[in-house]
Amino acid sequence: MVKNLKAPEGNITGVSYYIPAKLHLQVMKSIMPGMKSVLLLMEKGHPSAPIDEEETRAGCKELGIAYYGRMCSSLDEVLTTVNENKGKVSAFIVGSQALLIDNTSKLVDAAGKTPVFAYSEKPIKTGALGGYVADDEKLGRILAASLIDVLIRKKAIREVPVKFDSEPIFYLNGKTYTKLGMEIPANVLGAAKIIQ
To answer: Same domain, yes or no, for 126 and 33?
Structure first.
C-alpha cells in the first residue's frame, strides 16, 4: 500500500501485523536445531504471498536453511504438495493467506510428523506448532498514538511511520508439540504463550 513504511506517501499510515520472517525462522531453528529446510506454502494470486516469499527466502539464506516455496490455487494442490514433501523438508510454513489459514488442520493432518509453523495466530489454534503473532491490544495502543499524532498534534501523515509490534508473542500449540513428541527448549517454552 505504501512504498516507504518510515515515511508513508499519500494519506496512509497505521499499524501492521507484519513480523519479520527471520524472527520466525530463528525460533523454529531453536526448537529444531537440526532444521535444514522449510517449504513455505502460499496462495497463488494473493497480494501477501510475494511478501511472505521474499522475506522467508532472505531469512533462510541468512540462517543457512534451504528454502522451498509453493504457490497453490486450491486445497487439493496444498494437500498434494504436503503429501509429496512431508519427510523431505524439516518443516512446512503456512503463509498469511486465507486458503492456508482456513485449512491448517487438514494441512497439519497431511503433514504427519513434519512440523507446521505459521505466520499468524489462527493456524496455531487449529494445529500448527507455533509462530510469532502481533499483540492486538498493543497494536491498538500504537494506532491510537498515531491518530493522536495526526489529529491532535497535526503531524503530516508522511511524518508518522507505519508501526509494528516490536515484541510479538510466540504462540505454541501444546497438543501439537506433545503429538509430535518434541522437546521444546526451556527458554522457548518459558517465553511462549501455550495454546491447548
So the answer is: yes
Strand residue runs (E) in the chain:
37-43, 66-72, 91-94, 116-118, 130-133, 169-173, 193-195
Cβ 89 vs Cβ 60: under 8 Å: no
Structural domain total, the chain? 2
8 Å CB contact between 119 and 131: yes
State which residues form the domain around 89. 21-133+166-195
Question: pLDDT 10s digit of each residue in the chain, 196 long?
Answer: 566 667 777 777 787 777 889 989 999 999 999 999 999 999 999 988 998 999 999 999 999 999 999 999 999 999 999 999 999 999 999 998 999 999 999 999 999 999 999 998 999 999 999 998 888 888 899 899 988 998 899 998 888 888 888 888 899 999 999 999 988 888 888 888 999 8
- Could you tell me the sign of the dihedral formed by the alpha carbons of 64, 176, 187, 16, in that order? positive
Query: Is the separation of the CB atoms in 126 and 171 below 8 Å?
Result: no
Does residue 61 sit in the same domain as residue 119?
Answer: yes
Task: State pTM to two decimals.
Answer: 0.86
For residues 41 and 25, give the distance between their C-alpha atoms in angstroms, rounded to a whole number: 15
Instruction: Please tell me whether residues 158 and 170 are part of one structural domain.
Output: no
CB 75 within 8 A of CB 103: yes
